[in-house]
Amino acid sequence: MEGSGEEFTKYRSPLVSRYACKDMSYNFSDRNKFITWRQLWIYLAEAQKELGLPITDAQLSEMKSHLKDIDFVMAAEKERKLRHDVLAHVHTFAHYCPTAAPIIHWGATSCYVGDNMDLIMLRDGFDILLPKLARVIDRLANFAEKYADLPTLGFTHYQPAQLTTVGKRACLWLQDLVMDMRNLQRARDDLRFRGVKGTTGTQASFLQLFDGDHEKVEELDRKVTELAGFKKSYLVTSQTYSRKVDIDTLCVLASLGATVHKICTDIRLLANLKEIEEPFEKEQIGSSAVPYKRNPMLAERCCGLARHLMALVSDPLQTAAVQWLERTLDDSANRRISLPESFLTADIILSTLQNITEGLVVYPKVIERHICHELPFMATENIIMAMVKAGGNRQMIRIRKRKDCHGHIHVLSQQAAAVVKQEGGHNDLLDRVKADPYFSPILGQLDALLDPKTFIGRAPQQVTRFLAEEVRPVLEPYKSKMDVKIELEL
């Protein structure tokens, strides 16, 4: 095809080519991966030199000067011959660092670079996600505050129930997101470094290098861990760090996916009711066949990707379950896919959700119309109580009045319901109440009895307290990263 490039002749993951941000894409890129490997070899050599092994400043300088000089063609050719990716890159690095060649990867196993690199990428991936999640929470908190006292129909079983407010409903979304924030932060902070543990985790090769000096082996582990930016390493490992770490990581991301799916499903339902819409660009086309439609495409994208994110957690669960003894290599191919894809997917749903929450459109008049359609039924208890009060103070009078009033309002409610359901008419219960002489003692109170704001309970106060005590505090560490706009590619 004229004008087509080589990249269009083979499959490309939409997570990278279509959706995810540059930072997250780079975090899991081959370039970052192999630069990290080389950096880990430098950390190892620096620590070994400090502890007395015969490594020169010239060797370290040579390694550092060629940190980013990666010949991917050479590495691929060597991997085809050696059938080993780590050794291929050891040889490629050694080609640029002939003086340092004897001490590159000294005493280490492949998982020294492989697993430690994965842990660095997981940590850095969380560091990309957390500010994005904070921005979503911030935008949604502003929305909740703005609409804290706007009455709206509450739904249970997707049937009209007692009123709530638009802001209070947003706080239900926020509560889940704040839980996700805590979960992601905990999972990030719980990550440790694998460190230098050797082929089966016994550190035997390093103990041999240091002539049986256990203290130096422990110090080597500590120094490399510190150089890599971790506070702790796992004290015991097999050849790999426990794959339960991957479970923990992907579980919190899957949980975030569930939250986003629920929020965006709610937005899609409300869009159908024409109460709330996601932002709609000036030149955006909602439907190729129906020009007036405004499809909730961003919320739909979030739901579709969130399902993928939730499904990915099954991979580390099954991988951890079948790690035979000190390790088996059937984890490698799976983790190359499941770990990056989880972070890439989480990244794009947060970016998309930020775009949605920055431009949510509310239609108060539509919301009011829906309330007016249902409120007369909800107000029947208020009408009964008003009639009871108007009937006298003695106990027997109140009991008889309540029973009598309940009978009247029940009949009128059924008649009004028949008009709505069978004839498709509007809810005329209020007109029936006004026309019935029985209710003449409270006609002057009906407008007050039907004020929507008398049906929302403490929703506005709950919003205010929740935002102040639960939401704003978790955003404090990210205050300097709030003013970032999201430009969605597609």
Largest sheet: 2 strands, antiparallel
Can you tell me the CATH class of the largest domain?
A: Mainly Alpha
Number of domains: 3
Share in helix:
55-70%
- End-to-end separation: 23 Å
The name of the CATH architecture of the largest domain is Up-down Bundle
The side-by-side strand order for the widest beta sheet comes to 1-2
Mean pLDDT over all positions: 90
What is the CATH H-level superfamily of the largest domain?
A: Fumarase/aspartase (Central domain)
Quick overview of this protein structure:
By secondary structure, this protein is mostly helical. The protein has helices spanning 14-19, 22-27, 30-50, 57-65, 72-82, 85-96, 110-146, 166-190, 204-209, 214-227, 244-272, 297-312, 314-321, 332-358, 364-378, 380-390, 395-423, 429-435, 446-449, 459-475, and strands at 151-156, 159-165, 276-277, 361-362. The longest helix has 37 residues, at 110-146.
Written description of the protein model:
With 490 residues, the protein is mainly alpha-helical. It has 3 domains: 25-103, Orthogonal Bundle (Fumarase C, Chain B, domain 1), CATH 1.10.275; 111-281 and 292-363 and 469-478, Fumarase C, Chain A, domain 2; 380-449, Ribonucleotide Reductase Protein R1, domain 1, CATH 1.10.40. It has helices at 14-19, 22-27, 30-50, 57-65, 72-82, 85-96, 110-146, 166-190, 204-209, 214-227, 244-272, 297-312, 314-321, 332-358, 364-378, 380-390, 395-423, 429-435, 446-449, 459-475, and strands at residues 151-156, 159-165, 276-277, 361-362. A two-stranded antiparallel ribbon has the order 1-2. A hairpin with a 2-residue loop joins strand 1 and strand 2. Helix 8 (166-190) packs antiparallel against helix 11 (244-272), helix 12 runs antiparallel to helix 14 and helix 16 runs antiparallel to helix 17 (395-423). The longest helix has 37 residues, at 110-146. The chain is elongated and about 105 Å long. Mean pLDDT is 90; it is low at 287-291 and 392-397.
